[in-house]
Write a structure and sequence with these properties.
ATP-binding; about 25% strand; glycolysis; 5-stranded mixed sheet; Nucleotidyltransferase, domain 5; kinase; Hexokinase_BS; 11 strands; alpha+beta; 4-stranded antiparallel sheet; about 270 residues; globular
């Protein structure tokens, strides 16, 4: 019998072994469909090498607020300068409304930011950090698997969120964006550090939820064709335990929190 909220070291080692097993299962060509830890390919094939430069827009959506940023990458200084940013709240009715309402709200906030920075005459490339479990098809195509963190917008699960953002911007018609790179927040974290330290190959988030990414050898990523080089893998380890594998260590409080959440049974590890 374990004391609530305290697990002995042997039990922790056992849980660690379960997580490792699920990470390997998520990489498998035939096992990833039933894996609780999804190990999603990101199609990011390398960390920054210091030659990047230019002006970019960034959107960061992963909680009850989202950020819009204008950043400048300076090759000579090997650093990323934040020129300015804006934080926009997402009201509860939008978090639980339709996908069109959500992306129209994002497009409206981006429009206000571009106005404030006198950037509407420019067409800048955009990095879109969308911190929900997605099946990445290409660098600019990402299908939402499921909502987490209190979101439950209709008409988005199973659809390409980059396309939904572009459609919302087109509906406005008062500005345009360039190419879009879609990344998870863990990937963005790893890449931003990797610009300063090229030995950085792991990104981890501990916030509203928890997640991690890392650079994996392509020969181990069985669900993607090709064995040459490496690719960043978004583990989505918040799903660890969604198959019941952590039931033996859940407390009565864990069960109540899960059952009363907006997405019961999802992201057990968070």
């Amino acid at each position: 019998m374990y004391i609530l909220f305290h697990l002995p070291q042997e039990k922790l080692k056992e849980v660690s072994a379960r997580l490792k097993r699920d990470l390997i299962r998520g990489l498998g060509k035939h096992s990833h469909h039933r894996a609780a830890v999804k190990m999603l390919p990101t199609f990011v094939r390398a960390t920054p090498d210091g030659t990047e430069k230019g002006d970019y827009l960034a959107l960061d959506l992963g909680g009850t607020n989202f950020r819009v940023l204008h950043v400048r990458v300076v090759e000579e200084q090997q650093r990323v300068l934040k020129m300015d940013s804006k934080i926009c709240a997402i009201p509860q009715e939008i978090m639980l409304g339709t996908g069109e309402q959500l992306f129209d709200h994002i497009a409206a906030c981006l429009s206000e930011f571009l106005d404030s920075q006198d950037l509407k005459g420019q067409t800048l490339p955009l990095g879109f950090t969308f911190s929900f479990p997605c099946e990445q098809k290409e660098i600019d195509k990402s299908i939402l698997i499921r909502w987490t963190k209190g979101f439950n917008c209709s008409g988005v699960e199973g659809r390409d969120v980059v396309q939904l953002l572009k459609e919302a911007i087109r509906r406005r018609g008062d500005y345009d964006i360039g190419s879009v790179a879609m990344v998870n927040d863990t990937v963005g974290t790893m890449m931003s550090c990797g610009y300063r330290d090229q030995s950085c190959e792991i990104g981890m988030i501990i916030g509203t939820g928890t997640n991690a990414c890392y650079m994996e050898e392509m020969k181990n990523v069985k669900r993607v064709e090709g064995e040459a080089g490496r690719m960043c893998i978004n583990t989505e380890w918040g799903g660890f335990g969604d198959d019941g594998s952590l039931r033996d260590i859940q407390t009565e409080f864990d069960v109540v929190v899960d059952q009363t959440s907006i997405n019961p049974g999802v992201h057990t590890y968070v």
